[in-house]
Amino acid sequence: MSGLGGGQFWVGQRPSTVSAALNELASAWTVAMGRPAVTRRTWLDTADFRLYRRGMALMVTAGEDDDEPTLELSGADGPTVTAGLGTLDRPCLPASLPPWLRPRLEPVLGVRALLPVVEVTGTIVSGSLLDAEGKTVVRLVHERPATILGGRDRLPGGLWLVPLRGYAAVGARAARIAQRAGLVRADRVGYPAALLAAGIDPDGIRPAMEPGLPARVAVARMLVSFLDEMEAAWGGTVKDVDIEFLHDFRVAVRRSRSAVKLLGDVLPPALVAWGTPQLKWLGDLTTPSRDLDVLLQQLPSLTGGLSGARPEDIEPLERELIDRRAAAQSALVRGLLSARFARFRARWRASLEGLAGWDGRPRAGPTAATIAIERLALAERRVLRRGSRITDVSPAEALHDLRKRAKELRYLLEIFTPVLGPGDARGSVKELKALQDVLGTFQDSEAQRDAIHALATDLIARGGVSTRTILAMGEIAARLQVDQDSSRERFADMFERFARRPVQRRASRPEQLRAAPTRAAATATAGRMR
Amino acid sequence: MRTSGMKVVATYNIKGGVGKTSTAVNLAYLASRDGLRTLLWDLDPQGSATYLFRVKPKVKGGGAAIVAGKRTLDDAIKGTDFDHLDLMPADFSYRHLDFDLDSRKRPTDRIRRLITPLKGEYDVVILDCPPSVSLVSENIVHACDVLLVPLIPAVLSVRTYDQLVEFVDGMPGRKPQVMAFVSMVDRRKKSHREFADQLPRERASVVAEAIPNRAVIEQMAQERAPVPVFAPTSTAATSYEALWARVQSCWNHTGR
After folding, report:
1. B2 lies in some domain
2. Of the partner residues B53, B54, B77, the one whose CB lies closest to the CB of residue A165
3. Domain containing B225 — which CATH number?
4. CA separation for the pair A86, A119 (Å, rounded)
5. What ipTM did this prediction achieve?
6. Which of A82, A100, A165 sits opposite B78 (nearest CB)?
7. What pTM did the predictor assign?
């Protein structure tokens, strides 16, 4: 990402180096600099840095005067686009983006909201290098060191050299002069530089689990990292910034529950006995809101192209879902702001952090590698056993149960990625994910159909709903039934593929793992469970 | 702001000195000011538009290299002092453009094919054409969506315009929307006022947005900038703004 389109950012050891470079440039061209302007630059992104990960940056620039702030979108593979900001909600959901921005950003943002990530205030002086005709050949932007809001560090200043189209040779000459004057080309500019200066690391990875760690320490550290994820998603869930915060919160809760269930025997029994119902409470607390989020999100595709329904027939259903979602959100927020949740956070963290320390000396009991192999084998056997029993006439509960076991296996694979090696884990997760997708569609279709039936019953009982709305809901339920039937048909094939390449055959290599018990495996978690 | 697909506007008249270049330069500036990625191609070997934007009137290999495809427009385009506005400079060799075009296959379609690859890069291309009836003019008519014709307030200019409309109507294949406006109107003269008021009523393709004959337009050569840059509140600037709005409404309504 170059920041200013086609330009280069040059920085010096001292702020005076830029002035020296400008003096040198003035010997070859006329340097015309404008008036210094104090500007506030705010980079926006989603909580999980979706723009950053795509090499994009979205910056709002506001001056001291009353001029309208400008919004600038730059992308790794697209031109920089600048426009007047107008109004932009903060947080801003994709649906409320300005029309020129929405098609560019919606595919990247998905359902996530844009939030201010880094805000800096500093002085910027714009100018030009003019040739003998008085024509601009290179644009100059002198950024003085800027203050980061809420931070101690400063965003380093420097000089942008932006040659105009057709003046690349002039730009190259200007760059050589800048270099001779003591400036060096910055390798990180714009948004990535601002993130670095603000101490934000979007590429930060979960602490690696070393195979030789005592199992208790490894599991405690893992649970601490899940608690970190819960806390990171807590604020956005309470404020209802976007529906992914709740989703992230739930994923962290589910991972914690699975870890406690499958690996909890290495933790103190009293802690497991206390933590298990707390985590279940959090799971139950968050389920109604999440189910309604999913249903509302899928409503356009569920209602698109219904044969007998008009948009106004769907409206009562949508209104009802929105009302129910608001009620569920209130209950969720009450729970997340409750003393019970505060107590859980504090005690769970204190207990786990007390277990997570290790001085490196050998301890009695299993290592992370040992339990990885053992528990993966156990979890996989469960999936294979339950899956092989499923036939075309098995009750839906059997598939639901298999889905839960498959999730547990998936979590274990993700948790033990550093122990297994990323290649092994990725390959295993791929087939498992395909199986999970089928099982997920099967269960979600059923849950949504049941929800539609329950809603229809309520609406009829309350009265005032049109027959056409009820018929539309019937059609939606029928579609969901078709989806569920189709998932069941695909299940056998997906399960066979999974069973043909068992996780253990590739992942379980005890000799290798035991031979290298202290191998540092700083690898990112493979394909997170969504 | 974006248009649906690249739009090509050509300022053209058989006669010289009627305000083609002033119109091309000011409309190109206004388009870029609206945020549209704009290219102005100065096809006139005199290079007046190129001079106004302070760019050297030089294209490596000349018009022949461009027409022959030995050099692309991309190689020769220059950025101007204004955001979103680029210039394809004039070159004195453009005086031989007819000859260069004639030596190619499908000579009347060459300019259209030269600008087609710029579709993803520009929203608006404005062609500032030399005054003549030639292969270059025929190319321009084939290449543009809107043929913008400045008419000076004189009876003979209407006669020439009618000939142009007849020529375009008789052209095979794709035709541009022909839009004329009255240029260099001196409101102190009764004949000019009557001309500028009546002609749009008599001919549907002549729009009511006229450009006055003002000293500020002459000053473009001294200032070397479009009128709205150095005289933003002048009558001339507001007249060009009105004309630009009219051109845009033309392609918004016709989908051109």
Report:
1. no
2. B77
3. 3.40.50.300
4. 19
5. 0.87
6. A165
7. 0.76
